[in-house]
Amino acid sequence: MSCCPDPVKMQGGALEAVVREGELSAATHDLFDGRMEGDFLVPDMKCAACIRTLERGLQNAPGILSARANLTQKRLNVVWQQELTDTGSVGRNIESLGYTVMPFETAALTDEKDPAGQSLLTSLAVAGFAAANVMLLSVSVWAGADHETAQLFHLISGCIAVPAVLFAGRPFFRPAIDALSKGRLNMDVPISLAVILALLFSTFETLSGGDRAYFDAAVTLIFFLLIGRYLDHLMRRRARGAASRLASLAARGGLKIMPDDSVAYIPVSEILAGMRLRVPAGERFPVDSEILYGAASVDRSFVTGESDPVLLQAGAVAEAGTLNLDRPVDVRAHRTAKSSFLADMIRLMASAEESKGAFVSLADRLASIYAPVVHILAFAAFVFWMTVTGGDWYVSLYSAIAVLIITCPCALGLAVPIVHVVAATRLFDDGILMKDGTALERLADVRTAFFDKTGTLTTGSPEVTGMNGDVSRPDIALALSRQSRHPFSGGVEAYLQARPDLNARAKAVVLSGSVEVPGCGVEGRVDGKRYRLGRGAWVQELSGNSAGKAAMDDDVCFGGEGVPCVSFPVSETLRAGAEDTVARVRETGITPAIISGDRPARVERIADRLAVDERHSGLTPAEKLRMISAAEERGEKCLVVGDGLNDSAALAAGSVSMAPGSATDVSRLAADFVFTRESLRAVDLTLKVARTARWLVCENFALALLYNCIAIPAAFFGYVTPLTAAIAMSASSIVVIANSLRLRWLVPGRVSGMAKPPERVVQ
Amino acid sequence: MTGLLFLVPIALFLGGVGLAAFLWCVRSGQFDDLDGAAERILIDEDQTEPPRQ
């Protein structure tokens, strides 16, 4: 058995699914020499065989120049010739190899062109080099080198440490100067002060023949702090910019109908209210507009989250951004583009994103207390020794520097980022991408979890759960269901096919004149009698009877001339793990709630199945957003899980948000976590990791505090030598790192129900 | 102790070479995909190894 997906098995589902070309193209860019480059996320890439399959498979595909897989980031970099192939076919090529593919940019793992990260890494390398060498020399001194040898070693240490610290310390000096020039204090001020004072003091001590040089402390301090700073940088928030992505949904212009009935293209900014426009099939409505005549199926998923086509008749209003699916219609513009529904959404989303930036992380809050305390302590030590020794500035300064060095927040600087990195890798193992370290902190405080219905709690594909009444001709129902590609008829087909004898009988049915009526259903003739499968009222026109009380208006019905109408209750398929997840979320003290743009009856069914009490249906995106904002204002932290365009504003407004990998790209951009595996158990796992991470961060703070409680009095009263300072500082950092690594034990293995990655097999 | 006079510079020089080598590795992307490098050794037929972009 191989760990790689089986291409043949995948072909049924994945290939039939429409490749989201538009979204994939978000991760591509033009190299301006006829070549295009794209970065794709391939979550199922797991071993050498996967790398080989993907790279070889793609290189053999027409037009593809190179393919390079990155297993650590599960990323696939592809370069192709623009004339020979396009993003869509590259995506299909990857899918035909048996892998699911997503645009990489939203995963936002690492940015190759990241000058800040590169410079931090260089500083880290220099600090590491200096720390190792200085430590080597210092250890010799501590081990007994004395007189001229000790002096020489201190001198060499100084020659290494001073330039190294000046180079590697820049990430601390610059923010410290910034903060001081604005009259504020941050964590970088005591760090810079301690390091620079230690260097000056040690240089003076070395040149005057003393033996208390702190070069090693200064460089190891910078080294440990840079580790923390670099990890923090890796976890830092990526630019969201989901609002600008939403704007790309807006049509750039529209076709104006002239008095002589010809049409002319005008840019969207020139469209005025009352203007008559024509919207061709396949185009988006440029502004909110009323349909004058004609009827068209439209995709309103942007408004309701439901991807089922909706039939709009004359008089109905289509929001800007709605996609016209099948026929051209003439419309009258209601409003200008600036005041359209879509423009409102973009504004709402931008403001929601802004308000989210105000979150202050735990580490920053602690730093604001810590920095002044350190300064006061160091100053107190100086004053104390000045009075005790009667003005001996050498001893006083030495104690003050010892306090500054020993309190330097090595352990504190590592406490948070180490936990976040361990948590992020743990989540990545289960296919969950974390975009922002503080998201874990925010998630741990959540009180309410809002779930979108379609596409999040459910897979979006309908499932027929039974049959009300007796069908006299189920074979005809099955034959008719095969005439339509509508998802509902697919559900009926799947249900009836399960009955063993029916398949052959349905094949024997001779259907003639079958037609599909948009918004109603399919109709066909068998032996001269008409039969219909579709909307209840429409079927009853033929069959005469009512389908009974049990039938809901969105159930699929079947009937014909002289054949009584029966209904198939339609329910949506729950996403794998949905029931477990909702139950576990409730167990952890979080109130689950459903917010949906769908009709009440459908929401009730799902809510009843999941036993969720708080349920809201028929919400517009703005109403969803208001609901989340209201809860947030009450001080109730919200987790929002959603996938549709209509959820994107709510995702941005919630204190923390999650989206499945199948979500629209605006939603994935707005979300803090993206789970790439099918099961909803990812939500529950992320919650568990977040709570464990918060616990570990608190433990780390407690450990750092404990260390300071012992070390500060020792430094204050002058008992700290360079050797004890080095041991104490390293020990506290190592304890914090070791404690953070416990997260892997605390959240062990795979959560049952999540897709298990099979054993690695070497081929 | 006179040995230190050349041993220490040699140690520092070697350390410096190591540092330079590390920085070069980082810049040329050799640390970009550590898991992938570990697995790639299992792939046969090196001659069709894709060109690095």
Outline the structure in words:
The complex is a heterodimer of chains A (763) and B (53). Chain A has 763 residues and is α+β, with helices and mostly antiparallel strands. Chain A is built from 29 helices and 28 strands. In chain A, strands 15-28-27-26-16-24-25 form a seven-stranded mixed beta sheet, sandwiched between helices. Chain A has a six-stranded antiparallel beta sheet with strand order 7-6-8-14-9-12, with no helix packed on it. In chain A, a hairpin with a 2-residue loop joins strand 19 and strand 20. Chain B is mostly helical and 53 residues long. Chain B contains two helices and no strands. The longest helix of chain B is centred in the first third of the chain and has 25 residues. The N and C termini of chain B lie far apart (52 Å). The mean pLDDT of chain B is 79. Classes of the chains: A alpha+beta (763), B mainly alpha (53).
- Kindly report how far apart the N and C termini of chain B lie: 52 Å
Low-confidence stretches of chain B: none
Mean pLDDT of chain B: 79
Helix content of chain A: 40-55%
Structural class, judged by helices and strands of chain A? alpha+beta
